[in-house]
Amino acid sequence: MPQIEKVVVGVDSANQLQEIITAAEGNLPMLPSSLFCHDEKLLSPHLWSQL
């Protein structure tokens, strides 16, 4: 997805991190348009306290 530059993820284990890395190296499905968001306060963790 060329419009995505960075992604923030959380993991509970090294195994979860490895699964995410493996999935990211493969073909990713298209995201539904209902998941798109342009609200900077929602997208930027440092602004979450303003929500």
Task: Give a brief rundown of this model.
The chain has 51 residues and is an all-alpha fold. It has 2 helices and no strands.
Description:
The chain is mainly α. The chain has one domain. The chain contains two helices and no strands. The protein is flat, with a radius of gyration of 13 Å. It starts with 13 loop residues before the first helix and ends in an 8-residue tail after the last helix.
User: Radius of gyration, rounded?
Assistant: 13 Å
- As for the number of domains, it is 1
Biggest beta-sheet profile? none
Percent of residues in helices = 25-40%
Please give the count of helices.
Answer: 2
**pLDDT < 50 stretches:** none
Strand composition percent: under 5%
Q: What's the count of strands?
A: 0
Mean of pLDDT: 86
Derived structural class: mainly alpha
State the separation between the terminal residues, measured CA to CA.
Answer: 27 Å
Describe the global form.
Answer: flat
H/E element string? HH
Summary keywords:
single chain, 51 residues, mainly alpha, 2 helices, 29% helix
What is the topology?
Layout: H1 14-24, H2 40-43
